[in-house]
What does this fold into?
Amino acid sequence: MFTGIIQEVGKIKSIIQKDNARILTVASVKLINEIKPGDSVSVNGACLTVVEKSNNSFKVEAVEETIKKTNLGKLKNEDPVNLELALKLGERIGGHLVTGHIDTTGKIKKIKKLTKSWLFEINFPKQFRRYIISTGSIAVDGISLTVAHIDDDTFTVSIIPYTWENTNFKFKKVGDEVNLEFDFFGKYIENFLKTLKVENYGKKDKILDRG
It folds into this structure.
């Protein structure tokens, strides 16, 4: 579990294609001493397991399913990536609870520079519209952000100077793909209501049979 507060912007050092998976070597300065093999690390919002570590980098493996749902398959050497270590019990949650299980990717449609912030308009697949609400939380490339505006297939987030300077957003441009994770509470509620509806239909059928 993560919080969506990026702790370091790492850099892709090398990429090895292994069957349908990719071994990513990520250069790190701030977090490397806290990382050990077996740890979970959020890389652009995707929860990956550290398989190897050196003095200034670590390796993670992105399997086929992860590559399909994320932008990790499009990363190149020297690309900046957002990094966050797994949340420890008792720590403050500065953003919102983020699982690291990416739902889909979006594409940056527009970037607007304001006086002290930036507005990013992002396209997303329409089937995920029900999980996004105005002023609700969303994780974009692992960053906990608040939805400022929502349409049928786009949403807008505001990037403050601190987020701009401490994440990979300052390197983003129109057309770039970003990882999206929607608030998992909404997904749990949806699943609960669906299950409840099915159970109620079952009870109704039994009553009708008895009648």
Observations:
- The chain is about 20% helix and 40% strand.
- Residues 8-85 form a domain with the Elongation Factor Tu (Ef-tu); domain 3 fold (CATH 2.40.30.20).
